[in-house]
């Protein structure tokens, strides 16, 4: 009987360790889903000389103040924010500016800033924004010359994945 308990405890440790390793190694710079689930139907949204592909069946707001939001009925959301930079820049310079502008200490809503992340086949700046206790937005920032395009991805109220839509949007960012 003690041997069964040891084996059962060991199996639990291995299972929990595997789950913990997956959770601990995921970051905004890692691929979150297989290509099999990529959305096939998209529509193009333009914002200040930048175009992105958004899910065709989602409600998309009109561009306002450099921002477009696409929402699914289940609460999933992809937000696009465009910022014109005063001069051509690169990812490292923008990451330094972001790090300096983010609140620190108890007020910090942003964590996990990764200045040199890779997501959806692109080099991006990645970070997490804790909007509320139950709301997390993953941000991926694409820098192209004088354009800083931030793509924010938020899961909905169901188990439907946001990652395929987020990947497609980040992958599709184009500056005209």
Class per helix and strand makeup: alpha+beta
The sequence of SSEs as H and E is: HEEEEEHEEEHE
Name the helicity range.
25-40%
What composes the largest sheet?
Answer: 6 strands, antiparallel
Mean pLDDT across residues: 82
Report how far apart the termini are. 70 Å
The strand order across the widest sheet is 3-4-5-8-7-6
Number of helices: 3
Rg result: 19 Å
> Quick one: overall form?
globular
Low-confidence stretches: 12-38
The count of DSSP E runs of length 2 or more, i.e. the number of strands, is 9
What is the percentage of strand-forming residues? 35-45%
Describe the structure.
The chain is α+β, with helices and mostly antiparallel strands and 176 residues long. The protein has 3 helices and 9 strands, in the order H-E-E-E-E-E-H-E-E-E-H-E. The protein has helices at 2-25, 91-101, 163-172, and strands at 42-47, 50-55, 59-60, 67-71, 77-89, 110-119, 122-132, 135-154, 174-175. The strands form 2 sheets. It has a 6-stranded antiparallel beta sheet with strand order 3-4-5-8-7-6. The protein has a 3-stranded antiparallel beta sheet with strand order 1-2-9. Residues 12-38 have low confidence and may be disordered.
């Amino acid at each position: 009987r003690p041997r069964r308990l040891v084996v059962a405890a060991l199996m639990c440790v291995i299972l929990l360790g595997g789950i913990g390793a997956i959770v601990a190694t995921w970051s905004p710079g890692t691929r979150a889903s297989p290509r099999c689930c990529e959305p096939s139907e998209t529509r193009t949204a333009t914002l200040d000389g930048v175009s992105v592909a958004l899910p065709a069946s989602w409600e998309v707001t009109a561009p306002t103040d450099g921002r477009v939001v696409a929402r699914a009925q289940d609460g999933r959301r992809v937000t696009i924010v465009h910022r014109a930079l005063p001069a051509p820049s690169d990812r490292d310079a923008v990451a330094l500016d972001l790090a300096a502008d983010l609140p620190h200490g108890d007020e910090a809503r942003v964590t996990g800033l990764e200045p040199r992340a890779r997501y959806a086949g692109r080099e991006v700046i990645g970070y997490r924004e804790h909007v509320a206790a139950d709301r997390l937005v993953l941000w991926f920032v694409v820098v192209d010359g004088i354009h800083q395009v931030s793509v924010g991805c938020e899961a909905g109220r169901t188990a439907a994945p946001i990652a395929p839509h987020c990947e497609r949007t980040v992958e599709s960012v184009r500056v005209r």
